[in-house]
């Protein structure tokens, strides 16, 4: 949604020191949410010299080639390699451990993309990113209640009765974004919210996720392999579950269990409740203890996982039309919730952060008009690509998690009859989109496949033109 209207919040904030209508300093960015999107954005704003603060409501808190280039720019990629294992193969099994299909990552994929697939525990990436944020810029236990915006700035109000002011507000607070809810409520009252954005997100799956403590390699031989042992298990129509295990450094096993809700015996009111007690969660996990894995019963792996490190996640999907209005912009799951069947939700959240950082870097001087133009530019660069990935996420979810008769047939055809060359071409095509920060030295091009050229920085080009004219100006004698 392109924003051609003015924010209709109050025209002034009483008792506030408002920024001027135009200034030479870069815009101050307020980021709500310290997930992957918020931390990644903060990391690049730090490099760009753009002032920012991150606010997170709680007390504590498998990328692809698309983000590895930008990770190289800030030396995150090298750290990620240390906590990852390469994914060279993957096996699909039935619930009874009969092989459905065996997939291998060909050398041609690495040769063409320049990067291999990595598997790691997501908390490891959080730890890498959060260390790059200066402590005084990361504020925990700050729950946003509301915000106001106008031509002069934006003001955030928190549950502890404090406020903060800035030039740009970024909603990076996830699928149930408080920033989006407050923004949409305001737009709907003004008749500015598209009908498509009033729909509820579709919830098709529930997932339980965990990572074990270090295990004995003698009991679990696959742990000693330098590459990740990656297994997908899919139940039949009477068993609407899928479960995945893969090994990571430190002799640990990451696992998740996915329940296809429309086929499962789950009370609707229970499914809607996002705050199930740990006891309720364990009751559901008790039902799957006897599921077979390459390492024996799944229950043994669950028992080796600290209970406070088992998370319950909804697999929801929704592509919102409205990503920004006034000085406020949404990124990551707040703007587009993809089914996380191939890790594209996290990948695209981080790509959002890189592209938005580029757009904010081009805001000079800082003015309301320039900020609006930057947020328009951000959505224009990202929306069509996200729309394509949204469709892909549904297809991949059917392959990995589908249990209906048609989904099982579709999976068998894709994994066993589809020529591997077609799958290979799709991987290469998907990896061609690799946005980097325009304001940092560019990471070298990896692989032989072409890479999509990204939009150059207008600010950098203008500065080059000015410098060129300055050196070329004739000197009067």
From TrEMBL:
Renumbered residue ranges of the record's region Disordered: 1-22
Q: Which Pfam families match?
A: FAD_binding_3
Task: Please name the GO terms that the record assigns under molecular function.
Answer: FAD binding; monooxygenase activity
**What keywords tag this UniProt record?**
FAD, Flavoprotein, Oxidoreductase
Q: Which residues form the FAD-binding domain?
A: 28-188, 307-362
Keyword Oxidoreductase among UniProt keywords? yes
Polar residues bias spans: 1-14
Oxidoreductase is among the record's keywords: yes
Per the record, the similarity remark reads: Belongs to the paxM FAD-dependent monooxygenase family.
Q: PANTHER family in the record, alphabetically?
A: FAD-BINDING DOMAIN-CONTAINING PROTEIN-RELATED, FAD-DEPENDENT MONOOXYGENASE ASQG-RELATED
This chain's protein is named: FAD-binding domain-containing protein
Give the species: Linnemannia gamsii
Q: What is the lineage of its organism?
A: Eukaryota, Fungi, Fungi incertae sedis, Mucoromycota, Mortierellomycotina
